[in-house]
Amino acid sequence: MISTAFDYERPANLTDALALLSLRGESARVLAGGHSLLPMMKLRFASPELLVDVNELTELHGVTIDETEAVIGAATTHAMLEHNGALAAVLPLIASVAHQIADPTVRNRGTLGGSLAHADPSADWPAVMLALGASIEVASAAGRRSIAAEEFFVGLFETALVPGEIIVAVRIPLQPGARMAYRKFRHPASGYAVVAAAVVLDIDAGHCRGGRIAVTGFADHVFLASKAEPLLRDYAGREDETVRLLDAAFADAVPLEDRFADAEYRVQLGRTMLRRALADALPA
Q1: SS3 of 205, please?
Q2: pTM (predicted TM-score)
Q3: Which domains can be identified in the chain, with CATH numbers?
């Protein structure tokens, strides 16, 4: 199947891109890597009248790091994040997860902002951004705003973006001393997570003072295991502690059921991936 007819624009700068999106409203879509949007268009699950290609906008590329945070442009590719040594030195979870996304072809074209905006319930980056406490910078012709990651993902392929807005950058606070881990049960064809868990632990002198847990692939959208996070304080990895934490993490989540995993299997996968991520993150 082929897509319906559409117009195509490659604006010279972000201001022009935002003006096009404002003018065309909900009939326009942003084109970044295209790995999600173009297949949907071919299947006619999406039929935009205008594609606004933002790949060449320099304002959306690159990584900057200062004493308190890392800022990643929305059009930065997965491969760029995989191989950025300076970023890996301060946020090792980023490079680790980037390497696990799909395959080299996808990593060299797909973008961080595109993945977040698409909000696939099995995507990797949403869980990472929740676990790291990131904020997502968005822009429109009317101005800019910042959205906390935990407020950005609101449903199945649904985000807090409104028509005319695009993601321009992601801000991630640096967390010296934190230990980070990501465990993923990977679908062998797509590379998406059947279930995955991201864990960031606040470690001081070998002692866990708290942390954050995010799960993707389990429910209709990524979520923070907020009921489990208080149990991370003084967590030492004992079996009784771990079982209570796993029980709390999935207590309120409704598992997806699809041809890859029924509800019971997905619950067991979720518990296993989180158990492994916790073990990876704890100091030896």
Answers
A1: coil
A2: 0.95
A3: 7-53 (3.30.43.10), 58-173 (3.30.465.10), 179-281 (3.30.390.50)
